[in-house]
Every structure is written in C-alpha cells, then in structure tokens.
Design brief:
The structure is a homodimer.
Chain A (H helix, E strand, L loop, with lengths): L1 H4 L23 H5 L13 H10 L4 H29 L1 H22 L3 H6 L2 H25 L1 H4 L5 H6 L1 H18 L6 H31 L1 H25 L3 E3 L2 E5 H22 L3 H4 L24 E4 L9 E4 L2 H29 L15 H23 L6 H11 L2 H17 L14
Antiparallel strand pairs in A: 1-2, 3-4
Helix pairs in contact in A: 4-5, 5-11, 7-10, 7-11, 11-12, 11-16, 12-13, 12-15, 12-16, 13-15, 15-16
C-alpha cells in the first residue's frame, strides 16, 4: 500500500502537460513534473519532483509515448485473453472475476480515504469497512440467488426461511454494523470516523452495487455482459488511438489527455464495432440465452426460446424509396446503437469522475495491480456505470416477463374474488381497446 | 440560516455538564459553557462563550430544567395534536407531512456541510443538490405509485409508458445529474465538490430513502405508520422522564444527557404502551386496513379482509399450568414486543448517530424550526431507522403474499401478448359465467 500514496511516474504523460494552464492546488503533481522548464509554480519544488525530473530528462516525448503504448497494449491483450478464457469456460468464471474486481476495487477506493496514523488508533475502523462490504454482498448475492434460482431455493426446507426473510436478515446485519459504528465513535476522532462511514457507503454504492448489476447481466445472458464491457474497452482503445493520431482539442480539464477528436472518433468506431459484434454474437445461443444451467460453457452451449430482439424482422420501407421495398434486421441491431452511444458519450464520465477523485486525493492511480494501467479501479471506472445502464436498458426495453397464460389464469381463479376477477376482465379489455387491438369495450351483464 | 451555525443556548443542559470528563476538541462548546467554574480548559475562553456565561449566571439549574421541560412539553403536545389531526383526516395528509419532513430534513442536513463562501463561487452546487433530491423522489414516489396503484396506472394510456419504463427514466435522470456534476467540477474546488456529492448522497440515503419506507408503511395501513412513530416518541418521553427522575449512570459519551436508567426504564414503559396501544388500534379498520381508498378518513373508515395477525388466536397452555388451560391473543400482541424493543434499544442509536454528526460539525442543532426541540432532523433522527425497521419487519413477518389485482394486471399487460390477453379475458369470463356470477359470456369483437 505504501507506493500508492507516493508520487509515481509510469510513462503515461503523453501530450498532457502544459495544457492544464490553470493549475489547481489539487492537480496531479507528477504530471507537472514531466515537462522540465514548464511554469509549474512553487508546488513542484519539492524533493521528489526534482528526483523525477533528473530521471526523466534523457527520455524523449516520443520514446515515452511509444513505451506507454507498448506496455498498455501488452497488458490490454493479456486482460482480454483472460477475459475471453473465462467467458468461454462458463458463466460462473465470469461471476468469480466480477466478484474479485468488486472486492479489489472496493479495497482500493476505501484505501485512498484512509489515514493510517488515525486508523491505527481506532481498532475497528478497518474491520467495520469489511463488515459493511460483507453485509452488502450478502444482501445483493442473496437477492440474485433468490431471483434466479427460485425453483431451487423456495423448495428447499433449509433455504426457505433465509429466502423469505432475506431482506430482514440483511437489514438486521446492517443495523448491527450501524449500532457498532455508533458505539465505536471516539471523542477527537468523530470527523475521521464519519468521513470513513460516508466514504465506505459511497464506495459500496458506486462500486459494489453497480458491479452487482453487471453480475445480474451475466445471468440474463452472456451477451448482456460481454457487449457493454467490450464496447467500453473498444471505445477506450479508439479514443486513445484517434486521440494520439489526430487529437488537438482538449475535451475536459480533469483528464488533460482526452481530446474532442478522440471522443467523437471513438464513438463512430464503437458503433461500427457494436453492430459487427452483435451480428456475430447473435448466432450463438451460448451468448443470447439466459443462464438456465450453470455448468454450460461455449462448447456445451445453452438452449432456450430466443428473445425476439435477436430474431430478424422485416421492416417495410416508404413507398417512394428507390429499388428496395423492405429490409430485414434483428431489433437488437437498433438497440446496439443505444448501447454504443452510451458507452461512447456517457460512460467516459465515469472515468472523469474517477480522475476528479484522484486529483482530490492527489494520487496518480487507485492502485498498481495492472502494469501500464494503474489499479483495477482505474480500468473499471467506466465499466460500472455502463453495466448499470445495460441492466436498466435490458430490463426496460428488452427483457420479456416470462408469464404463462395458464399460470396467470391459475392465479386469477384461485387468488382473486369474483368481483376482482370482473375488475380484471374490465381492466384488460380497456387496455386492449386503448392499444387498438379490439374496437369496442366489453359488456359484462353484471349480476353480483 | 445564520443562527444555525453559531452557538445557541436553548435551556437544554439539564444535569449533563460535568459528566463528560474527557472533553474532546469536537465536544459541544455551549454545554461546557453552561457550568461556570467547571474545568473546561482553554477552548472555552473564546468571546462567545464568555458572553454566554454572563447571560446564564443568574438562572439557577432548577429554573433552567423547568423551563426546558415546559417548552419541550408544550411543543411536544402541539406536534402530537397536529399529528393526530392529520392522521384522522386521512392517509394523504400524513403523506404530505412525511414528504414535508423529508424535504426539510434533507435541507437541514445538506446545509451543515455547506461552506457558503465556496458555494457562492460555484453556481450549480445548490441546484444540483436539489436536482438529486428531485430525481430520488421521482424514483421513489413512482415506485410506490406503480406498486400501490397498478390497477389505475397500467390501464391509463398516458401513464403506461412512464410506469413500464419508470426505472430507466429515473436512471437516465440520475445519469444527467452525474454528467452535469462531472462537467461542473472546477479546479481548486474538487475537494469541496466531492464532499458535497458524498454528503448529498448520504443525506438522500439516510433521510429520503428511509423516510420513503415510512410512507410505504402508511399505504400498508395507518397502524404500521402510527405504531413505530408513537413508540419512538413514547420511548423518548419516558427516557427523559425516567432519566431526570432516577438517572445516575451515563449511557454514552456522545449524548451526555442520556442515562442507562432512562434507557432501560423507557424500554419497560414503551413495551407497556405498545401493548395497550395495539389493543386499542386493532379495533379500528381505519388503522389496520391497507389504503384502498385515498379519500377515507377516521369517520368514513376503511373496509378490508383483516390480516390474521389482528385476529385473536387461542394458544393452548402446557398441561401442568395451574387454573388456565388456554389463553386468547392476537399475534400482533407478540409482534409489538419486537417493535417496542427495537424502538427502545436500537432506534436511539439513530439519535446518537445524529449527535455525533452534530459534534463533528460543531453545531448544537440541525436547525431551529421547532422551539425547544431544534430542527426537524433533531426530532426525526430515531424515526428514520424505526420506520425502516417497521417496513422490513412488516414485509418479512406480517404481510400476506396475497395475489393482488394490480399485480395480476401488471403481469398480464407486461408479460402476455395481446392475443393471450384476449384469451385470458375470454377464459375468465367463461369461468365467471360457469360460477353463475354473470349470466352471459363476453363478446369481444376480435380485430387482430
């Protein structure tokens, strides 16, 4: 943990320095130090900066750019390889990876707000952080397990009470932590302890909860996990490539290396990539089917009734359209435009947010687990909000509420009173009239 | 807002001073100042403290206690009166009060982290806080309205798309705020802006989300709102009365006025109060029925099939038990013990948490809206966690998973195709004809 807080120089300065004209007291010191002779003010006169300048001087700007590019590319490929390996081996491996990312990111993020000298005197602060994490994960995993494995959980005698009282148990676990936190408050440390409390909750919300949505996407079908993740990675790579190739205009002060050209250029490439990738993935039931068998992998495959968004649909063109009368396309090819656009125009703000945080705490990276990339959190910053979006978009526009007609009829006849049954008939016919399915309302000769 | 930050002396010192031997740098200055001659250290040598000492000296300890008691009692009665008025007039008035409390508490809590000089330079900070509130409330109210008024919302042509895409719309509203926050980040203000972000989210979570559970309790039946609220108030009053009567041992450093005797004594009184109050409330369907008619009030009443927890049940006693063979009791009389215990032993920690926050920010009260009580938040601090508990307990142990008409309509409209919906209408009407509820089948002019 020691090197994290110090000034690190990992060959990632690019053309950034000098752009950030109005340098704030929170700006990243190492970036200022990379350009000898630039007007960096009194801040960089510290010992470590001088050491960095001496070390950096012989390497040219071009050399550094090249080195950065190579290191990042190699590690990007390594990560992509591991990622594909896990994905082909089965959903459970991806779940494990996402869980690991979740825990490491949480650790990285709570570490930056930690003041070791204070934490040492307060024995329980660290334990409490992990307790909150455990409680939150117990709650979230429980929710998913209950939702996706109802048919197993609700039939099991031992699991049933945990399932039916899951939220209450989670709540009481949380309350125990809360009471413990309040009793552990020590005079003279209030500010530190409340900051820890707030910070841990922010980390839980920004990382653990959002990463959990990514996990639920896996359960809905590998494509809902893979597409968002690959779109963000693709966008990141193309923003970098387009940026260093034609980038001139700075996009945002927070991330001085990001350019408007890279931002917009990457959008175009991400859309193209998304359309092509969807076209490929749609052919494999392993990707488009929800997880109904946790033992499945790419070779065994999965079976399901395919969601209509993946089934080609014939769209009629207007009468005045030359040559073509109609075209055929799966609705998913339209939806992917929304995914690609979110990944290109909104998800990067997750990264800017993380950059802002790093500047606030005057750190270069959240950690140093991935060479050339920084901490896990540095690579995942845009993934969290993207996964959340994918979850929301999927459930709002794509998911089918698998309800069987027979099941509904059973519920209605056994669970509703005759009066309610009539209300139902009236309500549904009104809905059918509204939707233009039938022309006239229903006349029920009431005889209650 | 000006008087909030200053040192206020509102006659509430009681027997507290002198107990808190190890006085921290975060301790409440005004409490130290109330006892002239006590060893308060160099901290209280500031100008305002001297002024307070001069002002306070002529009033005796007894006089102050009496004044405190009178002011608090009067305002407690006023609040109880308003509260009962609203409760008898109808659920909608209680919803309005809870909403008002929610908004004012949020305002009070975000105000204490505000640094006016900084906020003035950053135009959007305040607007953004209110934007988060609006988004959160849109999301939460929408959820409740959709849940409790499905049968209306889902049949309405205009409301339907808002209902089916509610979470996505809320998410996008949140994302807009998030992107706006990131773009509004200004060099030199990062720390302030991120603190505001974290603090606003904490306030949303601790106040707005928790208060929302209280609102859902109202919809489940007035008793689920009234019991938790009155148990906390009762506990608070008895902790105060027992505390000033026989209190000797300090309970927690954070709230020096709280005594172990008051804490435990109030528990006993709260249990007794809860049992008696339940016994009374159970007789009124207005209290125990869920809100199926928003126009209902105490005089019109409500009608429903009563939840079995309110129906007396005969419990057999062991064979060796003298004189009595069995006794009759509604299960609710057992549940109330849990409610009363939570209100007595756990809910006060919500108050201690708030005390800790106040000490951290060196304020006496969150506001000054209620004379003798402080801000709304000062009075509500234990209510939030209690309402959350009541919600969780109710849904885990008391709610019946009955098939609701709204639930079925939701399933049908979102999950079945129009053709299946028509099949359902036909099937149910046929069933109603078979049962002799209606004389003739339904004629649906099919036009698919």
């Amino acid at each position: 943990m020691a090197p994290r807080r110090g000034i690190k120089f990992n060959h990632r300065n690019g053309h950034s320095s000098g752009v950030d004209a109005r340098r704030s007291s929170f700006s990243d010191i190492s970036e200022g130090a990379s350009q000898p002779g630039s007007p960096i003010g009194p801040k960089s006169a510290s010992g470590s900066d001088v050491a960095l300048e001496l070390q950096e001087q012989p390497i040219s700007e071009y050399e550094k750019k090249k080195q950065t590019f190579i290191t990042r590319t190699i590690w990007t490929l390594v990560m992509i390889g591991a990622f594909f390996g896990a994905m082909f081996m089965g959903h459970i491996y991806i779940i494990i990876i996402v869980t690991a990312v979740q825990v490491v990111s949480f650790k990285e993020v709570i570490a930056i707000a930690n003041v070791p000298s204070r934490a040492r005197r307060l024995r329980f602060t660290k334990a409490l952080n992990w307790y909150w994490l455990a409680t939150t994960m117990y709650f979230l995993y429980g929710e998913s397990v209950i939702y996706y494995f109802k048919h197993i959980v609700l039939v099991d005698k031992v699991l049933l009470p945990f399932a039916t009282h899951h939220r209450f148990i989670s709540f009481m676990l949380y309350v125990i932590g809360f009471v413990f936190f309040v009793t552990s408050l020590q005079a003279g440390h209030y500010k530190f302890q409340f900051t820890q409390f707030a910070w841990t909750h922010m980390a839980l919300y920004l990382i653990v909860v959002q990463a959990h949505f990514i996990m639920n996407n896996v359960f809905e079908g590998m494509i809902w996990f893979f597409l968002p993740v690959s779109l963000v990675i693709c966008n990141d790579i193309f923003a970098y490539i387009v940026g260093i190739t034609v980038g001139r205009t700075q996009l945002i002060k927070l991330s001085p290396k990001k350019t408007v050209e890279g931002f917009l250029g990457a959008w175009i490439f991400t859309v193209i990539f998304g359309v092509l990738m969807t076209n490929v993935l749609m052919r494999y039931k392993y990707f488009i089917c929800p997880v109904n068998d946790l033992g499945a992998n790419l070779w065994t495959g999965l079976e399901c009734v395919v969601n209509p968004v993946f089934v080609p649909h014939t769209y009629q063109l207007p009468i005045w359209f030359p040559y073509f009368k109609s075209f055929s396309m799966a609705p998913m090819q339209m939806h992917i435009l929304m995914f690609a656009t979110f990944a290109s125009l909104i998800a990067p703000f997750g990264g800017f947010f993380a950059s802002g945080l790093k500047r606030t705490f005057k750190i270069k990276d959240f950690g140093d687990s991935i060479p050339g990339h920084g901490g896990i959190t540095d690579r995942m910053d845009c993934q969290f909000i993207m996964g959340f979006f994918a979850y929301m978009y999927y459930h709002s526009f794509i998911a089918l509420y698998k309800v069987s007609l027979g099941g509904v009829i059973e519920q209605v006849i056994t669970g509703l009173s005759p009066r309610e049954q009539m209300e139902l008939v009236k309500g549904i016919s009104k809905h059918l009239v509204n939707q233009g399915v039938i022309t006239e309302g229903v006349r029920l000769p009431v005889q209650l």
